[in-house]
Amino acid sequence: MNRSLHLVPRRQSQRPPVNLQGMCVNAIALHQRGQLADAERIYRQILELDPHHADSLHLLGVLAHQVGRDDVAVELIRKAIASDRRPAAFHSNLGTAYQALGKLEEAATSYERALILNPELAEAQMNLGAVREAQGKHEQAEMRFRRALILRPDLAEAHVNLGNILQAQGKLEEAAASHERAMALKPGFAEAFFNHANTLQAQGKLEEAVVSYQRALALKPGMAEGHGNLGNALLAQNKLDEAETSYSQALRIKPDYAEAWYNRGNLRQAQAEQEKLGKLDEAVACYQRAIELKPQLAEAHYNLGNTLHTLDRLDESAASFERALAVRPEYAEAHYNLGCVFEDLGRLDEALARMARALEIKPDYPQARFGQALAQLRSGDFATGWRNYESRWQSPDHDTPWRAYPQPLWRGEKLDTGRLLVWGEQGIGDEIQFAGLIPDALRSSNRITLDCDARLKPLFARSFPEIEVVSGCGPAEAQKAEIAAHLPAGSLPGLFRTTETAFAATATPYLKADPIERERFRGDYFDGRKLIGLAWHTRNKNTGRKRTVDLTDFAPLFMLSGIRWISLQYGDFDGLAEQAAAANAPLLIDRSVDQLTNIDRFAAQVAAMDQVITIDNSTAHLAAALGLPVWLLLPFAADWRWLEKRSNSPWYSTLRIFRQPKIGDWETVVESVRSALGESFS
After folding, report:
1. Which of 189, 252, 376, 411 has the smallest CB count inside 10 Å?
2. Mean pLDDT of the chain
């Protein structure tokens, strides 16, 4: 906020001795020219002659404020007021000194007294507005700023302050206009350009904000906040190198600038997302530095918690979220993310409690509602979980766009006319999983069109001959196809799997591979040994790291005799061959099968196996839906669909689960698989 001081001589009610009056005039002239030491010397000479000289006491107090000695300023100006209570400027400048000391109520009282004496004192109106803004009384602040501008329409500082209030109220267009008036009135006013840039950034006008920040910095290069906020605008545009330069400059000017350290941590997070994973440790250090400087910066604790979560430092992450909540108990996002950490720690009841608390604070928080749904499903609360699962369409964690068909959503009824369109969502594995409910939909006696990923079309058409299988059915195509109702495939369980017993209706196998291709693969691979397919890697950017098993970890399995290992892993063939060689893994890598582009051929290859051992990826769903014995290797905190602490799955009757007993412990999982394989050969 901008404050204004009164540095003017006042008319004396009684003419003082000529020598004192002249000395005071000289001192004021020096004061106005910035020759503060000379002015102070004369003020003190006057006070030696007349200790109650009100003007000298007042102006010496003003000088003390200007050099940052506000406690002295308060003492001197109060003495001036004790000598003469009538000048409004005395009370106004006392308010300024109190305000600088953070004594807002005392400042407000002083400004109000000044305005009783002189209601047309624009600076006092403006400064009182600044106090009210600092107290969170935005309506009162706005009123004061507007009164100041009625009195002095050319008061640029009041235009800036009014703009800041309007921005805080979400009135961004009005705020921008107010800042623009300040810039027009005072073209060299760096703070006006800075605050205008803040408003532009809030409007999402990032390029314009950058220009305004740069203008502010051209006028005032030493403005650390300007460099910091410029960095934020550049970071929002993903201009990471330029943002780095701005944050560095801000910290050169102001090494203890907590917000700049915090935002540099955000920059390191963004760099990590561009696969510069080492930047996460630097992000942790930046957030920790921000917290050292400003322990009450809740956002720094929060983002530190997020970064530690990504690094799987779960106990530390939970502690950071707890500290964020100690600062800001109603921080809904911190409650939710703490719930996510508890979920990964296997503390599901605590996770659900935190998510519920986040939703109490912020009922329109779709990410928390969706996260709560997944935790409820993981706990086996299907009735509530599937109901809340419908919030996925509003959550940023769900990356499938909603299809705006004009037809109504299907509720399980028999349609009078037309067809039911079931459309796929999420990834290949999800589409395969939810396809297990197509028989339930068929029992409703409706004619069904299934819209799926084009790569699944041949496999689904063979597996569900009773339905029409298409790909890319938009609203126009749906109209032509006489679609009467539609439903995303992920909403089928909410109709048909609301209890544990209802999963008995998922009969596997429900997918059918090409039998000729299957036999061809079988003939090519079979050499008298048991054929076991293996998949060990997923490149999912969010959870791939914890789900992936290093190929070298399977060494105990490769030592078993009587097994021919077939790679069911997608990826570059040369890269897979290099991994196999480095791990001394006896894997057959069939370069004729591209799992990502020809899923029907891949299904035939999978169907040729005697057994599949896989991590949590689409191969697990495909193999299980084909009815093969599938051994699924899961991390300690597994995906919601595999429930809690179970060795089997209600989704697939032939699937057996091997879970990490503790975070990161694949060795125990592989040993359990090795032991189970040994039993199957005995």
Report:
1. 411
2. 93
Gap between the Cα atoms of 227 and 233, Å rounded: 10
% of the chain with per-residue pLDDT over 90: 85
CATH class of the domain at 419-505: alpha beta
C-alpha dihedral sign at 427, 433, 439, 441: negative
Contact of 76 with 108, CB cutoff 8 Å: no
- For the entire predicted model, the pTM comes to 0.84
Rounded to 5°, the CA angle 485-489-491 comes to 85
Among 313, 318, 349, CA closest to 335:
318
Q: How many residues does the chain have?
A: 682
Query: Which one, of 301, 471, 479, 307, lies nearest residue 404 by Cα?
Result: 479
Q: Give mean pLDDT, residues 132-137.
A: 91
> Tokens 């020809």 sit at which residue?
598
Whole-number Cα distances in Å, 98 to 67, 81, 142, 265, 278? 15, 15, 21, 35, 47
CB 293 within 8 A of CB 263: no
Residue 152 near residue 121, CB atoms below 8 Å: no
Are residues 505 and 433 in contact, defined by beta-carbon separation less than 8 angstroms? Answer: no
Q: Which CATH fold topology does 515-681 show?
A: Rossmann fold (3.40.50)
Q: Could you tell me if 162 and 173 are in contact, meaning their C-beta atoms sit under 8 angstroms apart?
A: no
CA–CA distance, 335 with 352 (Å, rounded to integer): 10
Architecture of domain 1-152: Alpha Horseshoe (1.25)
Q: How far apart are CA 535 and CA 533, in angstroms?
A: 7
Residue 381 in tokens: 């609360």
Let me know: does 649 contact 560? Beta carbons within 8 Å: no
* Model confidence pLDDT, tens digit, residues 232-266: 999 999 999 999 999 999 999 999 999 999 999 99
Contact present, 297 and 291 (Cβ < 8 Å):
yes
Residue showing tokens 């909410």:
494
Residue 681: what pLDDT? 63
Q: Give the DSSP letter of residue 648.
A: B
Ranges of each domain in the chain: 1-152, 419-505, 515-681
Hey, do 419-505 and 515-681 end up sharing a CATH topology, with the first three levels equal? Answer: yes
Whole-number Å distance between alpha carbons of 581 and 380:
42
**Amino acid code (one letter) for 116:** I
Mean pLDDT of the region 491-497? 97
- 448-451/630-634 β-pairing: unpaired
